[in-house]
Amino acid sequence: MDKRARNEDEQETKRQRLEKGEDEQLPIYAKKFSEEAIKAEGRRPKKKVAVLIGYSGTGYRGMQLSVSLCVELEIDNV
After folding, report:
1. Residue 55: which residues within 8 A CB-CB, separation 6 or more?
2. Is 63 helix (H, G, I), strand (E, B) or coil?
3. C-beta separation of 61 from 68 below 8 A
4. What is the dihedral of CA 19, 37, 77, 23, to 10 degrees?
5. What is the Cα–Cα distance from 40 to 61, expressed in whole angstroms?
6. Domain residue ranges in the chain
7. How far apart are alpha carbons 32 and 49 in whole angstroms?
8. I want to staple 17 with a disulfide (CB 3.0 to 4.6 A). Which of 22, 60, 74, 77 is the partner?
């Protein structure tokens, strides 16, 4: 099966689950907020920020998310 057909199958499956009323599964790094929390937060003015991250590689097993200790998971926890 080629990539395009697989993607179309996944999208169709996702659409069917949403039509049945099943909740969409969030990725492990996503946080689901309640509607009340979102409304209470309100809008704030945008700010431009820059983040510089140094990574030596010692004690970690790569930059991507994984079940073991990784840099991206540590950044998300901050």
Report:
1. 63, 71
2. coil
3. yes
4. -10
5. 39
6. 3-77
7. 24
8. 22
